[in-house]
Structures are given as structure tokens and as C-alpha cells.
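We modelled each protein-ligand pair independently. The example shown here corresponds to the zinc ion entry; the chain sequence is given first, followed by the ligand as SMILES.
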Amino acid sequence: MSGRDVRDAAVARLREQVATLHGELVRYNLVAWTAGNVSARVPGRDLLVIKPSGVSYDDLSPDTMVVCDLDGVVVDGDLSPSSDTAAHAYVYRAMPEVGGVVHTHSGYATAWAACGEAIPCHLTAQADEFGGEIPVGPFALIGGDDIGKGIVATLSGHRSPAVLMRNHGVFTIGRDARAAVKAAVMCEDVARTMYLARTLGRPVPIAAEHVDSLHDRYQNVYGQSGAPVGTA
Ligand SMILES: [Zn+2]
């Protein structure tokens, strides 16, 4: 497959969406320097669109995004893809329902990752979005498939769309890139509030059945009818 084969309207739309979504990482203070990335699967094709490596968020544009196959090999783009591309690609290969992946080192969530501690569910907003605790994944070195394997092993069969990779940071998944960005924003919000709660005292639990009903309502009922979940 050559670059020319992937220059169509669907890929162009995703280049624009992925470039724009990186602005949300900056807006919500989830990233420092160039450390953080968003990718999107091209629906129905074995392709993903991802941030180039080491480029300032101010300099990202649809044209600078990189198109790779699901082995992380560049198909179209002038720049090298994010150094986390192998992890994103592994997730897309293993989890066909996933359409977007985000990685950040956002401060509060990564503090929990540094402690190797899952974020327990003591907030209704966490029950809504994550359906329980936000789990910790294994320690894994960058390069190869270890990070991707850790993400998939932790999130498969789990309600949480976010995993705290031990000593590293956050990976989130979603049905599309926007949903994965939302999960990254909410993960940091919950991590900060739970840090404050721990500092203030002893957080009180939510009964498991209430966590279940909150999650079910939010995922299935909340928002404008016909709109993607969680957009309102
Ligand atoms: Zn990282």
C-alpha cells in the first residue's frame, strides 16, 4: 500500500480530528512538552492515524499526522510516528471494538501509577465513566509489544476505559478518538479528586449495586437521545 492509496476523505477527516484532539490534551493540562498522544483507527481498514514523534503541540496540523498500518509501519506521512505507536497498534489489533487510543502522563493519575495503586471508586462520576476502580497495569518498557500487551490484559473484560500503567502513565481507549480523550480527561479529574479526598480523610465507599446502576444509567440513558454516550 502506498501513501496515495490512503489519501481519501475518510483518512483526511481523521487526520483533522486527531490533530484537533491533541489540543484538548493541552487545554485540560494533561501533557508536558510533547509527551502525550492520540490515535484513531480508520474504520473498516487496518490503518491508524497518530501524532508524529517529538513535534510541539502548537505545530500539529492534519498534514503532520502519520498514517500507519496496524503493525505500526508508516503508510503515509513525512515524519516519524509517535514512539508509542507500537502500543496503540497492539491495542487495535487485539480489541476490534476500540476506535481510539490516548496516552498521557497526566500528573495526578500518573502519581497513582507511580504508587502502583488502582484508584478505588468513591465518586459517582467515576462509577458513571469507569464503572468501578481504575486499574493498574504492569510495568513495561517502551519498544516492542509489552506496553500494548499490558494494556489489553488489564482492560479486556474490565469496565474501565483507562489503565494506569505502573511507573508510567495513563492509556485510555474509546469507541472513537474523542471518547478516548474524554476518558483521559475524566481519569485525571477523578485521580485529582481522590488524591484530595485521601489527603482530607478516609473516603467512604459506594455500594457495589449503586456503582452498577450509576454506570448502567450513564452508559445507556444519560445525554441527548441519539447522541453518542457522554457527549452532553
Ligand atoms: Zn509514556
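Helices lie at 9-27, 85-94, 107-115, 124-130, 146-155, 177-200, 208-220.
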